[in-house]
Amino acid sequence: MSEDGEAAEHALLARSRDVVDAFARHLQAERGRSPHTARAYVGDVRHLLTHLGSQGIEELPEIRLADLRSWLGAQADTGAARATLARRAAAARTFFRWAEHTGRMPADPSLRLVAPKRTTALPGVLKQAEAGELLDLAAVRADDDDPIHRRDRAILELLYASGIRVGELVALDVDDVDQRQRTVRVMGKGAKERVVPFGLPAARAMEEWLRVRGRLVGPRSGPALFLGRRGGRVDARQVRALVHELLSHLPDAPDLGPHGLRHSAATHLLEGGADLRMVQELLGHASLATTQIYTHVSVDRLRKSYQQAHPRA
User: Which are the catalytic amino acids?
Assistant: First the structure.
């Protein structure tokens, strides 16, 4: 990039910094976006402004629809995934709509901005037998005297039983779990609270964990349900490592993370005859269309079984 290009890029970013910071506050405070989503959207907007600055644009009101299309096109040319392009287009539309509404832009240049449609990729799932093997393995490890292994078993049982997200799981406090009713109170996306049931195996694993949780409690524990070895709240990275590590002991199972257990729970519920809207409520999906991907998973697996078993498939 030339020195003039760098100067234009820096000028656009510098002049827009207060606007971008205000947009970040808007996402979290007023729209209830999760910190992860807010960071992603703000990062996308900064990426956009960096690109436009390198094209010689120095002020937000100079931006036109053609500039936004050029930005998406440049990313598509370098191999960006459709899902990435769709999210970045959504971030741009959200940003410019907010900027116009708050008087920071005279007009919204993104009104006709369209990103490539997302491909409907089927999520990876465990077979029901594989999920059972995984939980059996966790139960065997929990037979020793290590409270971490009992915690791990409770984490895996709860993830599979409830289908909650890993971020929702690590945010749980002790009071969020009702052992008598076998339910857990979850704060989902958009700060929406829901109550999710879980089964008897998860309840037993939770009871065993709560019995030894006090051995890990320290100054940083607070009300956190699941603790690390040093007494702090367990984080998503630790849970992902746990799932990957235990699945590595099952030779034929796919290598999935905690979200794979969520996918598996939803798929197995539908295969067992659960109503689609019930699964939508259980998972905390805002749209039924998001939940419907699991019907595709079930049909795909049904088709494979049919082709393997039927003599005239």
Answer: 165, 189, 259, 262, 285, 294
- CATH class, range 128-309: mainly alpha
* Distance in angstroms (rounded) separating the CA atoms of residues 23 and 38: 9
Q: Enumerate the domain spans of the chain.
A: 3-101, 128-309
The whole model's pTM is what? 0.61
Q: Rounded mean pLDDT of the chain?
A: 85
Q: Which tens digit of pLDDT belongs to each residue from 150-184?
A: 999 999 999 999 989 899 999 999 999 999 999 99
CA–CA separation, 123 vs 108, rounded Å?
36
Gyration radius (Cα) of the chain, Å: 23
Cα–Cα distance between 236 and 70 in angstroms, integer?
Answer: 36
Neighbouring C-alpha atoms within 13 Å toward the C-beta of 52? 27
- Torsions phi, psi for 224 (to 5 deg): -55, 135
Tokens of 20: 């971008």
Q: Name, of 46-60, 146-160, 282-296, the range with top average pLDDT.
A: 146-160
pLDDT higher than 50, residue 92: yes
Q: Could you tell me which residues come within 8 angstroms of residue 130 by beta carbon, excluding any fewer than 6 positions away?
A: 250, 252, 253
Q: In Å, what is the CA distance from 61 to each residue of 10, 19, 297?
A: 16, 12, 46
| 3-class secondary-structure state, position 127 | coil
